[in-house]
Design goal:
The protein has 59 residues and is mainly alpha-helical. Helices cover 83% and strands 0% of the residues. It has three helices and no strands. Helix 1 packs antiparallel against helix 2 and helix 2 runs antiparallel to helix 3. Keywords: Cell membrane, Membrane, Transmembrane, Transmembrane helix. It is found in: Cell membrane. This is PLDc N-terminal domain-containing protein. InterPro entries: CLS_N.
Amino acid sequence: MGIEVGGLLGLIWLIIVIWAIVKVAKSGAGGFAKLIWILVLLFFPLVGLIAWFLFGPKG
C-alpha cells in the first residue's frame, strides 16, 4: 500500500513541477531569467518551486 501512495505523490509532484516549468516558459520574463528558473526547478524541485511561487515571474 505504501508504494502506491508514494508513487501517486511522486506523480502529483512531477505534474506540479512540469506545470511550473510551462508557466515559466510562457511568462514574460527574459530568456536568461526563464533559463535560470527552469534550471532551478529541475535541479532543486522543492526549493525551486517554493521560490518560484514567492519570487517568480507573474502573469
